[in-house]
Amino acid sequence: MNLLESIKEKARKNQQRIVLPESDDERTLQAAEIIIEENLAQVILLGNKERIEADAERLGLKKLGKAEIVDPKSHAKKESYIQLMLELRKSKGLTYEEASRLIEDPLYLGTLIIKAGDADGEVAGAKNATGDVLRPAFQYVKTLPGISVVSGAFLMILKDKEFGDDGLMVFADCAVHPDPTERELAEIAVATARTTKAIAGIEPRVAMLSFSTKGSAKHAMVDKVVNATRIAKEMAPDIQIDGELQADAAIIEAIGKSKAPGSPIAGKANVLVFPDLQSGNIAYKLVQRLAHAEAVGPVLQGMAAPINDLSRGCSVSDIVNLVAITANQSQKV
Ligand code: ACO
Fold it and tell me: Residue 311: which pLDDT band, with cuts at 50, 70 and 90?
């Protein structure tokens, strides 16, 4: 069974309640139909019931009647969600009027439904920019205990099976946090190791990447990676992690042996943690394009409940796959 099939199989075994806030997007409705048909999750659509039913009819979608529909403008729990918003954002000066307006925004409502325990996860971003999906999630769902930063990992399925575990590697952060501090970089490494185990189903061997290997260069940017490696080891002594390593020393055995003799990771890494978002985002896109790798993600990690962001150019199957991944993540938290 390939990776996505096993992720779907796992989603089916313990169905989670996943919110799809963008019911005004045809791909989202088509994806909801497949998710219901394939028993991947219980779907909660946010939007006007009559409009969703009319769209379903027009698109020939027969299963959407099985989805729960929550209308942001009028639903039984609106007032209790507003009170929850006020409680969570009191210190930020949120007023009743602002909360009453925000709760009608499906991207805010989705996060409040999750925070209240009425759903397990969310997938959005087919119509909305990354920041608009993430901001309500950061504000209301927040991060896992001990983690202060959300980041995005990609499962990289390589054509060349010599790398990673039979061609499977995990890269992070490629999507969210532009310039992590050394503590945040350590958290990203630990979160990525956990994603690797939970979603990719392989034992992580984490390389903290830099332009230096074991002191070959001296620079404040290298110090950040050295310190992040130390902090990550302290945070999670059970995880195999090493740095700072150059990319070639991390993934090519002979180079790892010569540049970082004795390193348990050099030459064998299956998880690459990049020092900042510039390098991580550039690297995953280059590997995807130049090496024709399949890039699955971003899988957002570190959030107290899984909320994942789609690309606006996504296909129906991208949405279905990300819902299955989100369901797997929520089985873990
Ligand atoms: N993890 C957890 N919380 C965060 C994070 C984070 N990474 N970033 C911001 N926050 C919190 C802040 O602490 C703040 O919380 P508070 O209101 O309770 O105090 C809240 O979120 C808003 O913080 P801002 O600094 O105002 O965040 P902003 O909304 O400006 O930016 C964003 C957040 C949108 C994620 C920004 O970091 C960003 O644009 N990142 C890059 C996203 C991107 O473009 N990625 C590349 C494309 S994706 C791809 O190619 C696959």
Answer: confident
Task: Please tell me if the CB atom of residue 89 comes closer than 6 angstroms to any atom of ligand 1.
Answer: no
pLDDT digits (tens, 9 = 90+) for 154-165: 999 999 999 999
**Residues in CB range of 83: below 8 A, 6 or more apart:** none
Instruction: Give per-residue pLDDT as tens, 254-277.
Output: 999 999 999 999 999 999 999 999
Distance 76 CA to ligand 1 centre (A): 31
Give, as one character, the DSSP assignment of residue 126: S
Which of 329, 281, 327 is closest to 176 using CA atoms?
281
Answer yes or no: is the C-beta of 185 below 6 A from any ligand 1 atom: no
Q: 308 CA to middle of ligand 1, Å?
A: 13
DSSP letters spanning 232-244? HHHH-TTSEEEEE
DSSP annotation of 303: B
Every domain of the chain and the residues it spans: 3-142+304-330, 151-296
Distance of alpha carbon 109 from alpha carbon 226, whole angstroms = 41
Residue 43 has pLDDT above 50, yes or no: yes
The answer to whether the 3-142+304-330 and 151-296 domains have the same CATH topology is: yes
Q: Tell me the fold of 3-142+304-330.
A: Rossmann fold (3.40.50)
Peptide bond into 244 cis (omega under 30): yes
Which candidate, 214, 318, 203, places its Cα nearest to that of 269?
Answer: 203
Name which of 29, 66, 11, 65 is nearest 322 in CA terms.
11
Question: Can you spell out the DSSP letters for 222-282?
Answer: HHHHHHHHHHHHHH-TTSEEEEEE-HHHHH-HHHHHHHSTT-SSTTT-SEEE-SSHHHHHH
For 173-198, what is the mean pLDDT?
96
* pLDDT for 1: 66
Topology given in CATH for the domain delimited by 151-296: Rossmann fold (3.40.50)
- Please give the C-alpha separations between residue 128 and each of 37, 39, 63, in angstroms, as whole numbers: 26, 26, 25
The pLDDT of 174-183, averaged and rounded, is: 96
Is pTM beyond 0.85? Reply is: yes
